[in-house]
Structure formats: C-alpha cells, structure tokens
Amino acid sequence: MAGDYVKLCRLTVILYVYVTAVAVSGRLPPLHPYLNGQEKPSARIYDTSKYGILQLGNGLATTPQMGWNSWNFFKCDINETVIKETADALIATGLANLGYNYVNIDDCWSEPTRDLEGKMVPDSKAFPSGIKALADYVHSKGLKLGIYSDAGAFTCQVRPGSLFHESDDAKLFASWGVDYLKYDNCFNLGIDPETRYPPMRDALNATGRTIFYSLCEWGVHDPALWAGKVGNSWRTTDDINDSWASMTTIADLNDKWAAFAGPGGWNDPDMLEVGNGGMSYHEYRAHFSIWALMKAPLLIGCDVRSMTQETFEILSNEEVIAVNQDPLGVQGRKVYSYGPDGCYQVWAGPLSGQRLAVVLWNRGSKPAIITAKWASLGIESSTSVSIKDLWKHKYVTDNKVASFSVRVDPHACEMYIFSPLAVARSAS
C-alpha cells in the first residue's frame, strides 16, 4: 500500500507540472493526431493544427493516393483498350508494386446525353463492353478503377454532369465496381462549391461501397478551409500544364495550404506531367520531388505503355515515393528562400522516426550553391545529422552540423533525408 501511495503522489506531481506548463504556454504541444501522439513534427515550422483525422470517415487516404489518370496525355482520346493496356503496363513495369494502384478514367467516357431512364451511359464506341467489365478487368490485376464526373450540369467536355443526380450516379458507379471518383467544377450554375460537393459525399457513402472522393474545385473557394469533411483530396489550384512556369506556380499556390493536409484528406496541386515532353529531365525530377514532399497525390499523367527509361527512373524512385507515403502525413513546405527573386529555395517536411525530408531547389537559370541552415529547418544548431541523397541513393555525410550546402543545376533540385545521428545509429 505504501509503495502504491508513493507512486500516486509522484504521478500527481508530474501531472501538476505538465498542466501548469500547458497553462503557462497557453496551448498543448502540436502532437500528430494520426499517430495518437506517438510522434510529432520536429518543429513548429511544420504546424499541422488545422487538419483533422479521417474526417470523411471512409477509411481511405491515410497516405496520398497513387495511380494514373488519362487526362494529361490522352484528353478525350480514350477507350477501353487504352485503359486495359495501361493497367497491364502498371503491372509489367512494376509501378503497381510501388503503390500506383488507381487507374482513373477522366472526362469523355460517357455518351453526350443520359438514357431514357436518366442514367449515364458509357460511350458505345470507346467503351463497348461497359464500365463494369472494365472494372472487373482492372480488379483482376489487383488494381482499382476510377471514373470522372462533375458537380455541375455538364462535365468540362459537355457530357452529363452529376449535379442534382448525385444519388443515382453514385449508385450506378458503385454497381459498376468503381473505386475512385474525380469530381470536377464546370457548368456549376453559379452555386457555391460548399453546397454542390457534399451531396455526392453523402451519396457515395450511402452506396455501401468504399469510393475515394477527389474534389476538383480548382481552389476557387479555398477548399482546404472546408473540404476536409467532404473529400479525401481537394484541388488547390487551376489545371496544371506541361511547363516549368505552370508547375512552379502551382507548387507555390499549394504550399500556402500545407497546415490543412493530413491523413484522410490531402491538398491536390493536380496530376503529374512527368514524361509528357514539355519539361527537361531536371525539371521533371524537381516536379516529382516537390510533389512527393508536399504529400500531393502521385497520379501519373503520361502514357506508361511507352514511357522512356528516364521517365521510369523518376516515377519509380522508391525512396522519394516513401517520403510521399510516410505515415506521419505532414505536408512539406517552403521554409526558406533567398537570392534573385527568391530562386534559391529550401523545402522541408518532417517524417516518422524523427527524420526530415529536405529539398534544395534552384529555380534560377544558372548553377548555384544552395545552403540549408539548421535554424530554417527547425533543427537545433548543435544537432549532428546523417544525410542521404535520395536521387543518388547514397549517404553524402554521416556527421553534419549547423548547415549543409550543395551545388544545384538550373531548374533542378536535390533531395535528402536528414536523420539525427542518434536515430541514424540506432536504425543501423
């Protein structure tokens, strides 16, 4: 009894000290909700206080979605053969084993009008076997099928939209075996997106089938502020195009909302353009690195049936993918920039295991030495870290203190994992 009493007294004192500390500071430490407080971001630079945990309640998107989407390369030139061959290619290349498991059909899959019963109908020339048969084929490969509709009267390519048809369309998609819905924003009749998007959430949930809900609202009404209770991801920007200017602009726009992303709901700066020909190898590598760091959906937008070895090398980098899929689920962000027009940039984000992902990005037109200082990363200046290069797949130093510098080519980036030395040693 005496021993129990002493333990109780000690616990009371500890609790008192903790509560007093919290009262003085005015807030609880920013623990990470998904891991139940087991880990937290390494510094308040990486605030995550504005997001919840699996708010939609469908159990999906514990990490950002990965897969392929037809739009960036094929636009409306799609058919069931393309979709089947893409599924085959994801398997044959090994990309599916790396996590690219959604095969998503974008706009133009349906007939221009609904049938006499008011139902959407697959285009009879492009999809003669129907979507159900296509879903069965994709599922037989161990993959998932996604489809597209619009929270408006029509899709962007003037096919039937789902506004005011949410329940019927959700039931139809579920009956076909659809696993993912990209929901666009064209022909929206001027109705606020906060009004138009929740009905499809409710309709999808009511089907009893687990369907990933991807809002494509273009960032018009700042969906990061409200979409966490509506969808599994939400577009924060207008459409990307296959250019350096578009990609960098969109990265900056998405960065603004970093604190709102987390397990169950992710900021979406649009799909990947890697491999479509409009950017250089270094630009595509930077595109993929920053998207991975930002915990953006990794949805391939090229023709994976005929991609180059360089494209495959970028898309299949397991260490970069692991940053994107890290269970801590904290979106990396731009933490420091300097130089002409701020073109020398340091982006970073915390990972599980007390590690830090760091990208040094040269957005200028000349080679430059870019320096990451520990203070800008939220690391104590005296901390020794081990640094691994994720593109060279090797450790560049095992005992760095205070700052790290490297030469970066124009429009290129270098990406690293920083591990505090004690953590690195225990892992080995």
UniProtKB/TrEMBL annotation:
InterPro entries: Aldolase_TIM (IPR013785), GH (IPR017853), Glyco_hydro_27 (IPR002241), Glyco_hydro_27/36_CS (IPR000111), Glyco_hydro_b (IPR013780), Melibiase_C (IPR041233). The keyword Disulfide bond applies. It comes from the Eukaryota. Residues 341-417 form the Alpha galactosidase C-terminal domain. GO terms for biological process: carbohydrate metabolic process. Keywords: Disulfide bond, Glycosidase, Hydrolase, Signal. Its EC number is 3.2.1.22. Belongs to the glycosyl hydrolase 27 family. This is Alpha-galactosidase. One of its GO terms (molecular function) is alpha-galactosidase activity. It comes from Sesamum alatum. It catalyses: Hydrolysis of terminal, non-reducing alpha-D-galactose residues in alpha-D-galactosides, including galactose oligosaccharides, galactomannans and galactolipids. Gene3D superfamilies: Aldolase class I, Golgi alpha-mannosidase II. Coiled coil: none annotated.
